[in-house]
Amino acid sequence: MSKTINIQDVLKRLGLKEINEGVTTGTEWFDTEGKINKSYSPVDGSLIASVKTATLDDYEKVMQKAQKAFEEWRMTPAPVRAEVVRQIGNALREAKEDLGALVTYEMGKIYVEGLGEVQEMIDICDFAVGQARTMNGFNLQSERPMHRLMEQYQPLGIVGIISSFNFPVAVWMWNTALAITAGDVVVWKPSSKTPLTAIASHKIIEKVLRDNNVPEGVFNLIIGRSSVMGDNFLDDKRVRLMSMTGSTAVGKRVGERVGKRLGKTILELGGNNAVIVTPKANLNMALMSTVFGTVGTAGQRCTSTRRIILHEDIYEDFKNKMVNAYKKIKEKIGNPLDPEVLVGPLHDIHAVNQFKYAIEQVQKEGGKMIFGGEILEGPGFETGTYVVPAIAEAENHYDIVQEETFAPIVYLIKYSGDVENAIAINNDVPQGLSSAIFTQDMQEAEKFYSAMGSDCGIANVNAGTSGAEIGGAFGGEKDTGGGRESGSDAWKAYMRRQTTTVNFSSDLPLAQGIKFDLD
């Protein structure tokens, strides 16, 4: 595909219309009477299509249907549930190019990244299929004779998913594939900035649900304003688990509201990710990785590289390499559907304002801009959302460096001495999502991911901060929220843990040797 792609043809193949229903329980779409939400492309400012949003009555109907569906779905064998997920993965394979193009056009990331996002959806479907047969518990040794002590995992219930604009469909599937396989039902509230990718995703899976007679209410989508799906969604006791991706500020509110009713949460929040480059690093590897980490998705990944911590012996050399690489990047900013483009637009003017504020603030605090920062104008840049990725020299203690700026600005920070000093700088921010070190020295690498090393949920060696595989649990610590999604044993969060004792003797011995006789 290229920038000559016909978006109207893409929309038609994905089943989208000029005005679309924004609520479904799987195969049934509601003729809602909510307000109209218009989706504009950050690529060229065009109106893509509109969505009829939910009302409070729609919300209640969906929740009731989800509750009823759970009673049936939880009793469906896990491998049977996973067969539905397998077929969904295949449906996504068939629609990959179209859905990837829509992700690009509605969100703004370059087309290869749009395709990559859909591939993540496919990959987690494949993962969940295998997971279905290995959601195992434990047999434990009882202290009482002729007793079995065991643990097992049971379906949890309704799982709420609140996703963000930057990965408008992948995060939904990270949660959904595991939750559905675990026997849960899902209610998805996508970002109001990217509603069409959500509707398209449900259109893609609709035939699979119908062919397999999946109960209405297992896969639910509600596109609604905060007055319809805001605190009431967080406070709803029927939602046993709320998985939320977004800013730390919003995540704290979600955690507080859900925690007040003792509900469970998976919080995937902000990152302030650093790459350490030591004198023993392969600088060419480090350069390629950090450039992608800083400008990929126009700096709008939660794992985007925000800080590069450079040893003083290589600082000037690496800085010059970065500037030269960014000069090449500057020539490849434009329409993200063009295969020659490496950096597309920021998603909206709010993101541009954040970018401009960070540039102003870092200079006020004593930092120095060494490249980029311009807002592009002229043919092809009429939206005002195309920017030149920026590099600034800064110190880690600056207030602006301590914050996450969701835009392509990276801070170069100098360190001296041993790698422990660099690790201290890496850890000295409120967030704790992703981190990386580039070094050919085994001791430096081992220290970095040891107990004395990075305090982040992700700690990579000779690999950047972004581009995580689905096979590992994804998430971070501190202000990143502590939640885990995707691979490894993240499935456990979508289930309830149960300990069972089975007495197959004719006696009734009590634990801890307690005697309780009536005679």
**Strand fraction:** 15-25%
User: How many strand units?
Assistant: 23
Main sheet: strands, sense, barrel: 7 strands, mixed
Mean residue pLDDT: 97
* Class based on secondary structure composition and strand pairing: alpha/beta
- Principal-axes shape call: globular
Name the strands of the widest sheet in spatial order. 14-15-16-13-12-18-19
Q: Considering DSSP H and I runs of 4 or more, what fraction of the residues is helical? A: 25-40%
Alpha-carbon Rg, integer:
25 Å
Number of helices: 15
Low-pLDDT stretches:
none
State the end-to-end distance.
Answer: 84 Å
Describe the protein:
Helix 3 packs across helix 7, helix 4 packs across helix 5 (111-131) and helix 4 packs antiparallel against helix 7 (195-211). This protein starts with 6 loop residues before the first helix and ends in a 16-residue tail after the last strand. The longest helix has 21 residues, at 111-131. Helix content is 36%, strand content 21%. It has a 7-stranded mixed sheet, sandwiched between helices. It has a 6-stranded mixed sheet with strand order 2-9-8-7-10-11, with helices on both faces. Strands 1-4-3 form a 3-stranded mixed sheet, with helices on one face. With 519 residues, the chain is α/β, with parallel strands linked by helices. Helix 6 links the parallel strand 7 and strand 8.
